[in-house]
Every structure is written in structure tokens, then in C-alpha cells.
């Protein structure tokens, strides 16, 4: 979740949605994202909406504290129930992200999940994921999370190399994420993801190969691999600006992506979104699939974004302001926008083009369609899906996905 929020119209105090957003809701899946805005320390590259204990001291008081957080989120879930009214949907997926959700005791994460269960009910086959930092879990906490109903855990591994972890300012040691996968399996998790980052200053092709080998060797059923983004305002951006470390370049990122595709596909992982690989369809992250295909999702927590029936809103960013609104019986929503047909068209192209299935050519206007034909001729789109009416990326196309989407939305 980005730490800057867009401008928009105010959210009513009771959080009420226009009738148009709720129309036809029963036929759409419903997902919950629960944000946990706490980290032990801040990694040098990260601009997510997260706070260390030191950063929160003196701002927001007890309301912003970790101790009260699960109950505050439960309050927002009760608000969601009121706003969505007699909506009969059970929740298809829950994703607890951060920040570092596992800085909270498992009982607090269970408390948040129970609130979803009590207010909405979970679908019988619901996917329930939590993100976790490798040094914030142990066999007992993983067993407690599994017991509470979590079905999937996603660990931030990033790299297997000590010097790369040091540039990223990660706190865990090499080898710990791989042991986490084994501990999660022992605790009964069928679905385990490792997040990796490539293109960190000082990382070589061989470092990246070693990272992929270590990740694959640990036996997860899902891997997410992201190119390092140097976000404005982070310590890493400052180091790049001062010339202390070199910013990763596009060619390096492309080479590393190809290395990832080669290693992962050889190990039986198939890509289903540009940055995501899974060992089977069942191993895909269904929560993200719902997000990428425009389902309804309610994001609870500071700075969290929600989308219901074409209305998008976002919460107050600071944990203190967020908790204060809920304590006063008000929606924590800070702004919202009604998506126009054109907004939704562009968003669908942006998200769906990144999927292995691609996006429907019928979403494109004449200029976008002409760009798609050029991309097909250049080998960036696959011929068979194109003939069947879909723009689906080739491997070369995946390397240029961002530029291509810009052309296709024209
Ligand atoms: C918000 S983090 C939460 C997970 C957990 N706190 C952790 O770091 O292990 C989710 C993932 O986003 C990715 N990420 C965060 N900032 C990034 C950046 N600037 N560039 C690339 N990937 C980033 C990392 O792979 C991270 O695991
Ligand atoms: S632990 Fe995760 S969320 Fe926290 S600062 Fe590091 S990358 Fe960001």
C-alpha cells in the first residue's frame, strides 16, 4: 500500500455508499484486506504506510498503539457490516498485510479474522493469508495462526545474500526465510509464498541466481519477485542521490527477470501475473486475483484503500487519526472517488494486461488497438490469444509491460 494518498471528495461520517455501488453486489466476490501499520525497524527501500514504535511515540497516544490495534480494526469491520447492509456475501479471501502483521501476537490477528467471521462469515474454501517477516515468527506462532484459520503465509525473504540484505537494511539473517517455509509446512500451511527483490545495488547475477535457488529449494508453492523500486523519500533514495550506491538500471532489471523466469519455470513454477509465479492454479494468490479482476474489497486499517461497485475510498493515513475516527463512531475514510467508465476501462487494462490470460482487445480504443497490433508484430503479444480477442504478453512483452500498458490505454 503506497504511503501517499490521492485527493478526492469527503467520505460521509457514517461511511455510507451510494446505492449504485451496492447494486448487483451479491454477484461479485467480496475480499478483505487488513493492514497492520507496524514494523520493528524501517527497511531503507520501503515507503509503505508503516511506523516503528519510535515514530509513533508522542503521536496519536494509546489509540495508535499496537496493543489496541486488533480491536480498532474489528470496529472498522463492524462499520463495514453496517455500510454493506444486508449484503448476503460470505468473504472469499482475507489478506493481512503490512507493515509487519506478525509483530502483533497471533491472538490479535485471530481477533481481526474473527471479526470478519462474525460480521460476514467466511466462504467454506476461503483463502486467508498473512504476510510475515522471517524474524517475527516461530513454530509456535505459525501453529497458532494456522489454528486460527489462516491458510496461507507470505514471507519477505528478498535475498539470500548477506550483503544484499544489508543494502536493503533487512533485519533477518540468510537462511532464516528458508527455515520459515519448513516451519510453516510443519504447522500445516499448504500455501507458502516467498517475496523476493532483484536489482538491489551491489547484487550480481550470481547473487540473484543463488537467491532463486535458495527460495526454490525451500519448497514454497508461490514466489513473488519484484524489481527494486527506489521510492522518493526513502533512505535508499538518499543514498542513490548522494552517489553512495548506484540506482539499478532497466537492462539489469530485464536480465534479472529473465533469470527468474528461467529458474522458476525449470522448477515447475508458472507465471500468472508479471511478478508472480505458482506451482499450480490452486497455489495462486486468489486475493490478488480478485484485486486484479475488479472484485469488491474492503481495506481496513490506516491508509487502506477499498473498492466497492466502482467507488474507491481510502482511510486516514496515520494510525492515531484512523483510530480516533473509529473511537468517535465515524468512518475513518479520508476521501473517495466514483470511478468513471473511462477510469474503470484504464484500470482493467493496467491490471489485466499483466495477467497470463491478458486483457480483452474489446477494452481498447482505435489508438490502443493499433498499438496492440504493432506490439503483436514486434513479438510482445502472443498470436493465438490475439486471434481469439485477447492481448496476452510474451516473455519479451513481460519485460516491457509498463511501457506497453501506457500505449494500450490510448
Ligand atoms: C509491504 S511488504 C510487507 C512484508 C513484510 N513486511 C516484509 O517486508 O517482509 C510486501 C513486499 O513488498 C515488496 N517491496 C516493498 N517495497 C519495495 C520496493 N521499494 N521495491 C520493490 N519491492 C518492494 C517486498 O518484497 C515486500 O516483501
Ligand atoms: S519490514 Fe516490510 S513493511 Fe516493514 S519496513 Fe521492511 S519492507 Fe516495509
Commentary on this structure:
The chain has 410 residues and is an alpha/beta fold. The protein folds into two domains: 19-292, Alpha-Beta Horseshoe (pyruvate-formate lyase- activating enzyme); 341-410, no CATH class. The protein is 40% helix and 19% strand. It has 17 helices and 14 strands. It has helices spanning 19-22, 53-56, 69-84, 106-119, 139-148, 162-168, 176-186, 205-218, 235-241, 250-266, 286-292, 319-327, 341-352, 366-377, 383-387, 395-399, 401-408; strands at residues 30-36, 91-98, 122-132, 152-158, 191-198, 222-227, 270-273, 276-278, 296-300, 305-308, 311-315, 333-338, 359-360, 390-391. It has a nine-stranded mixed sheet, with helices on both faces. The protein has a three-stranded antiparallel sheet with strand order 10-11-12, with no helix packed on it. The chain has a two-stranded antiparallel sheet with strand order 13-14. Strand 10 and strand 11 (311-315) form a beta hairpin. Helix 7 (176-186) runs parallel beside helix 8. The chain is globular, with a radius of gyration of 21 Å. The model has no long low-confidence stretch (mean pLDDT 95).
CATH top level class name of the largest domain: Alpha Beta
Calculate the mean pLDDT score and round it.
95
**According to CATH, what is the topology of the largest domain?**
pyruvate-formate lyase- activating enzyme
What's the helix count? 17
Which value, in Å, is the CA radius of gyration?
A: 21 Å
Dominant shape: globular
CATH homologous superfamily identity of the largest domain: tm_1862 like domain
Spatial separation of the terminal alpha carbons: 26 Å
Q: How many structural domains does the protein architecture include?
A: 2
Query: Hetero groups bound?
Result: S-adenosylmethionine, iron/sulfur cluster
Amino acid at each position: 500500500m503506497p504511503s501517499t494518498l490521492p485527493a478526492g471528495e469527503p467520505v460521509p461520517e457514517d461511511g455510507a455508499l451510494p446505492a449504485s455501488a451496492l447494486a448487483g453486489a451479491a454477484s461479485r466476490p467480496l475480499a478483505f484486506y487488513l493492514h497492520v501499520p507496524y514494523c520493528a525497524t524501517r527497511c531503507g527501500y520501503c515507503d509503505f504506510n508503516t511506523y516503528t514504535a519510535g515514530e509513533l511515540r508522542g503521536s496519536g497516544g494509546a489509540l495508535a498503539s499496537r496493543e489496541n490495534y486488533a480491536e480498532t480494526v474489528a470496529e472498522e469491520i463492524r462499520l463495514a457490516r453496517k455500510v454493506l447492509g444486508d449484503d448476503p456475501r460470505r468473504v472469499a479471501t482475507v489478506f493481512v498485510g503490512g507493515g509487519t502483521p506478525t509483530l502483533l501476537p497471533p491472538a490479535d490477528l485471530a481477533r481481526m479474522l474473527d471479526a470478519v467471521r462474525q460480521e460476514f462469515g467466511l466462504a467454506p474454501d476461503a483463502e486467508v493469508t498473512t504476510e510475515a517477516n522471517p524474524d517475527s515468527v516461530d513454530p509456535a506462532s505459525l501453529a497458532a495462526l494456522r489454528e486460527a484459520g489462516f491458510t496461507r503465509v507470505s514471507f519477505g525473504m528478498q535475498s539470500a545474500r548477506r550483503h544484499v540484505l544489508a543494502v536493503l537494511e533487512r533485519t533477518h539473517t540468510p537462511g532464516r526465510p528458508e527455515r520459515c517455509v519448513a516451519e510453516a509446512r510443519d504447522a500445516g500451511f499448504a500455501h507458502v509464498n516467498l517475496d523476493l527483490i532483484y536489482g538491489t545495488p551491489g547484487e550480481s547475477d550470481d547473487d540473484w541466481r543463488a537467491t532463486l535457488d535458495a527460495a526454490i529449494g525451500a519448497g514454497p508453492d508461490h514466489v513473488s519477485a519484484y524489481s527494486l523500486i527506489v521510492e522518493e523519500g526513502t533512505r535508499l533514495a538518499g543514498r542513490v542521490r548522494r552517489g553512495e550506491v548506484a540506482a539499478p538500471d532497466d537492462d539489469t532489471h530485464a536480465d534479472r527477470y529473465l533469470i527468474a523466469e528461467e529458474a522458476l519455470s525449470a522448477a515447475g513454477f508458472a507465471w500468472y501475473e508479471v511478478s508472480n509465479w505458482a506451482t499450480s492454479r490452486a497455489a495462486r494468490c486468489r486475493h490478488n486475483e480478485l484485486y486484479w479482476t475488479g472484485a469488491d474489497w474492503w481495506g481496513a486499517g490506516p491508509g487502506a484503500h477499498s473498492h466497492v461497485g466502482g467507488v474507491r475510498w481510502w482511510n486516514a493515513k496515520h494510525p492515531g487519526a484512523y483510530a480516533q475516527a473509529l473511537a468517535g463512531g465515524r468512518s475513518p475514510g479520508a476521501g473517495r472517488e466514483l470511478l468513471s467508465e473511462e477510469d474503470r476501462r484504464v484500470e482493467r487494462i493496467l491490471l489485466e494486461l499483466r495477467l497470463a490470460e491478458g486483457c480483452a482487445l474489446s477494452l481498447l480504443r482505435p489508438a490502443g488497438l493499433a498499438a496492440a497490433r504493432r506490439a503483436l508484430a514486434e513479438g510482445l503479444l502472443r498470436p493465438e490469444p490475439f486471434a481469439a480477442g485477447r492481448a496476452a504478453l510474451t516473455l519479451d512483452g513481460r519485460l516491457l509491460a509498463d511501457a506497453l500498458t501506457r500505449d494500450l490505454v490510448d
